[in-house]
Amino acid sequence: MRLTKQETLKNHARLLEREALYKHHGYDTAKAIAFVLFKATPLQGKVIEIGTGKGRFLVALLKKGHRVTTVDLDPVEQRFARLNVAFEGMSRKARFVHADAADIPFPSRSFDAVVSMNALHHLRDWRAVLTEALRVLNPAGKLVLADFNANGFRVFDRIHHAEGRTHQRFPYRAPDVVRFLQKRGCRVRTADCGCQWVAVARPIDT
Q1: Can you give the pTM of this predicted structure?
Q2: Which CATH architecture has domain 5-203?
Q3: In angstroms, rounded to a whole number, what is the distance separating the alpha carbons of residues 196 and 179?
């Protein structure tokens, strides 16, 4: 998939414009990512990301020195992510996989960390996706889930409304996610800050 320099620069300018808009409405992307990374640290070994999106969290992981496999069902979003990664000169550190996260095309116990930021509300069947996430996770590994909290959703609802759009999402409750993971043998830590919540889960015997 060829990415031109012109397309890469244009995409980066658009990204900066969106980040400024988000910050104006109350969501600081850099601070949100820093919060999630702080709660997720340390991350070791092979990392898989569920929900590439436009690659903001992916870029942050790559800058921390991780090599990341990232999975998304939307090839358009993944192209934006490829452009963002290319702008940072880190394309060789990322592996992009176009696939359904409810059917991850890797063997069980393939990864030492499974991460996902701001993708959970886009999942039609989050239980199926988390079941797959736990399947591909090494028993000594770590699952990191982060998404908008109520304040974060209010911010993005305002942004979408101002643009004449609707923030499409599948409702879920964070406590239900935590209980789901606990019932599958995980010890779960949660944290909430600003517009973001995060849950860090480990298999209970590690």
Answers
A1: 0.94
A2: 3-Layer(aba) Sandwich (3.40)
A3: 19
